[in-house]
Amino acid sequence: MPRPLVSVVLPVRNGGALLAAAVASILGQTLRALELLVVDDGSTDGAVAALPADPRLRVLANPGRGLVSALNHGMQAARGAFLARMDADDESLPTRLERQLALLDAEPGVGICAAQVEIVTADGPPAAGNRAYQDWLNALTRPADIRRELFIESPLPHPSVVLRRAAWERLGAYRDGPWPEDYELWLRAAAAGIGMAKPDGILLRWRDHPGRLTRTDPRCTRRRLLELKADALARDVLRGRPVLLWGATDTGALLHDRLLAHGVAVRAFVDLDPRKVGGRKRGRPVLPVAAARAHADAFILATVSQRSVKPAIRADLAALGRVEGEDWLFAT
């Protein structure tokens, strides 16, 4: 078989009835020059053995155990110039890979191309929280937008991504740690200056269900995500700058603790609530918004997670002469 243009890595453990549809959605792509590597992570349900024969399909046994091991094994076996991801319970629309490679061809500064998604459930449309999350994900298509909101939460749906091989080799393998392996990789990519983007239009049906790893895996808890973000902020963004935490919240307190462990100088919290202003949080003063002007050298991390109030926070910080991405960011 000729060397494929794209290698698609699909790890699976007991994919059940959904696996066949996920595989068919890749083998049915309009871009035909691909290989699909199904990495079996100890399945016992017979779904992998029941997959149809296709010269572009290779089934690999994971020599280790777990998702990160399976992902790295598939990436190491991949032969394509581009490396794509797929999950066993999702469905790629037919033009997904063709559209993503067109973007990568047109934009050499982009090393990772994800996709806009439709979140689907067995019970119909997703709940309001997932609809808001979907809208947020799909609004972030350009590299500057993704980089600006990278620390709110992971802006790239993992099963939708395509990476240039050069970007993958520069970043190295997925890391197996107490946090989501995909988000950790995107944070490293941003630190390395690798652009991330998405073409316009839904290209993946992303299935939500009670057994989804983001709901069940302890690596995906709020605390673990915050620790991962704090580590990357301290290492790659702050670089010795003191910090003001915008929002005297419980999340702000957790971020304070993790940043402090990295030696970051957290000067104070900033809050609008008059009941909090003048008090202390984690031993730091809680300042009114206007007082932030006296700390022009400090980087501001906003820790208020409600999407509805983010425009007001942006307006307040703009009024203080702050530029998002240069001297302040949302951290939740």
Automatic annotation (TrEMBL):
Single annotated GO MF: glycosyltransferase activity
Classification via Pfam families: Glycos_transf_2
UniProt key word Transmembrane: no
Residue intervals passing through the bilayer: none
Glycosyltransferase 2-like domain boundaries: 7-167
Alphabetical list of SUPFAM superfamilies matching this protein: NAD(P)-binding Rossmann-fold domains, Nucleotide-diphospho-sugar transferases
InterPro entries per UniProt: Glyco_trans_2-like, Glycosyltransf_2, NAD(P)-bd_dom_sf, Nucleotide-diphossugar_trans
UniProt KW keywords: Glycosyltransferase, Transferase
Family, as annotated: Belongs to the glycosyltransferase 2 family.
Protein name (Swiss-Prot/TrEMBL): Glycosyltransferase involved in cell wall biosynthesis
Species name: Plasticicumulans lactativorans
